[in-house]
Design goal:
It is built from three helices and two strands. By secondary structure, it is α+β, with helices and mostly antiparallel strands. The model has no long low-confidence stretch (mean pLDDT about 95).
Length: about 80
């Protein structure tokens, strides 16, 4: 597989299941697949869309910029 991955986790989701990100990291490492996995502080599930009730501008901009970096490097 040649895919790259960006896993952007809302803080409230991480608090609910804190081990999930570690399981993902281990699985990606074992498969030797590049993955950026991050918990975005102060966020609630669904924080990225502009029209979401839980929109978090600072963290959404960070997540979108990380995705654009991934697209630029992976979609060659």
């Amino acid at each position: 597989m040649k895919a790259r991955y960006l896993i952007a986790i809302a803080e409230n989701d991480d608090k609910r299941e804190p081990a999930t990100k570690d399981v993902l990291r281990e699985a990606f490492a074992k498969a030797k697949l590049p993955a950026e996995i991050e918990v975005y502080a102060g966020t609630i599930h669904g924080w990225c869309p502009l029209d979401a009730k839980v929109y978090n501008q600072t963290q959404a901009e960070k997540a979108w910029s990380r995705m654009l970096v991934l697209f630029k490097s992976a979609l060659v």
